[in-house]
């Protein structure tokens, strides 16, 4: 089980008692460490599987971990999955809810907000769009702000209007025995805080807690883990502050930076050996990321010496950038499959210029995680 691990990975697996923070650099084998740690708890320490809580960032990650472990875990999944299970059992203890509650998706939430805006005569107000209102409500919930608390902190007319909409939105959800995804965390926290016997039950049950992508947790997720880990404190968090990319939707980088303050007896293990990239790529990455002010110091290294050097190309416009990328693809495609090329951009709106150039050059491409610009409904409607 441990033979394939390097020294630091093995150290992280074997430290099972007490708080542990694993700072896992990109490509350092963190999933292997997490799955091996769970297998070790099950096989070597004879821990019952229902006493292990493993929280992942996506359902896909949970399925991958179970596949690698080779066993089903009763309590593995995303925060929403875990909270959903707890709420189905106990939400009736909260006023206004029953166990057959429904979960509103994006379309349901938007419909509720549109109805509220229409009733208030704000449906034509460009400053108060359903998307903006839901974004503000989501951010408030990530910070665990109730409608009253959000209203108390409102500084502008728009915020005051959103505060009123937020209150009505929550009233409507409760009237319909409905919750949104953010509510699932907040209501679980409320349930545990108001029912000490339920909290004690889960604190006792979850003897070992593992949290993946800890750098991307928000305040509500942090609070939930703090509650559940309070008794045994066998909490293992895995993350990398250099890979914090979700601050725009409430992720709080201080959760991982302050872990040692929350748990003064915590052990910290750095996974710095990279198995994915060559030395030149890592040297470039280290040189860039070291300029970040809020980070745990580490230095990625690899046994894959050398490698092609990274190029930094500065163009005069986004069109020139797309043309340069297309020129590069055409120059290299005689020797490489198109499957070996990837173009990354920060937001989906940036895909259009690349799509235009690729289409003109007749370079076939596949868009991942989005819809081709010219296949989007609103674009097709305009072109028709």
Automatic annotation (TrEMBL):
<keyword id="KW-0547">Nucleotide-binding</keyword>
<dbReference type="GO" id="GO:0000725">
    <property type="term" value="P:recombinational repair"/>
</dbReference>
<comment type="similarity">
    <text>Belongs to the helicase family. UvrD subfamily.</text>
</comment>
<dbReference type="InterPro" id="IPR013986">
    <property type="entry name" value="DExx_box_DNA_helicase_dom_sf"/>
</dbReference>
<keyword id="KW-0238">DNA-binding</keyword>
<feature type="binding site">
    <location>
        <begin position="24"/>
        <end position="31"/>
    </location>
    <ligand>
        <name>ATP</name>
    </ligand>
</feature>
<dbReference type="GO" id="GO:0005524">
    <property type="term" value="F:ATP binding"/>
</dbReference>
<dbReference type="InterPro" id="IPR014017">
    <property type="entry name" value="DNA_helicase_UvrD-like_C"/>
</dbReference>
<protein>
    <recommendedName>
        <fullName>DNA 3'-5' helicase</fullName>
        <ecNumber>5.6.2.4</ecNumber>
    </recommendedName>
</protein>
<keyword id="KW-0347">Helicase</keyword>
<dbReference type="GO" id="GO:0033202">
    <property type="term" value="C:DNA helicase complex"/>
</dbReference>
<dbReference type="GO" id="GO:0003677">
    <property type="term" value="F:DNA binding"/>
</dbReference>
<keyword id="KW-0378">Hydrolase</keyword>
<dbReference type="InterPro" id="IPR000212">
    <property type="entry name" value="DNA_helicase_UvrD/REP"/>
</dbReference>
<keyword id="KW-0413">Isomerase</keyword>
<dbReference type="InterPro" id="IPR014016">
    <property type="entry name" value="UvrD-like_ATP-bd"/>
</dbReference>
<dbReference type="GO" id="GO:0005829">
    <property type="term" value="C:cytosol"/>
</dbReference>
<feature type="domain" description="UvrD-like helicase ATP-binding">
    <location>
        <begin position="3"/>
        <end position="278"/>
    </location>
</feature>
<dbReference type="Pfam" id="PF00580">
    <property type="entry name" value="UvrD-helicase"/>
</dbReference>
<dbReference type="GO" id="GO:0016787">
    <property type="term" value="F:hydrolase activity"/>
</dbReference>
<dbReference type="GO" id="GO:0043138">
    <property type="term" value="F:3'-5' DNA helicase activity"/>
</dbReference>
<dbReference type="InterPro" id="IPR027417">
    <property type="entry name" value="P-loop_NTPase"/>
</dbReference>
<dbReference type="GO" id="GO:0009314">
    <property type="term" value="P:response to radiation"/>
</dbReference>
<dbReference type="Pfam" id="PF13361">
    <property type="entry name" value="UvrD_C"/>
</dbReference>
<feature type="domain" description="UvrD-like helicase C-terminal">
    <location>
        <begin position="279"/>
        <end position="384"/>
    </location>
</feature>
<keyword id="KW-0067">ATP-binding</keyword>
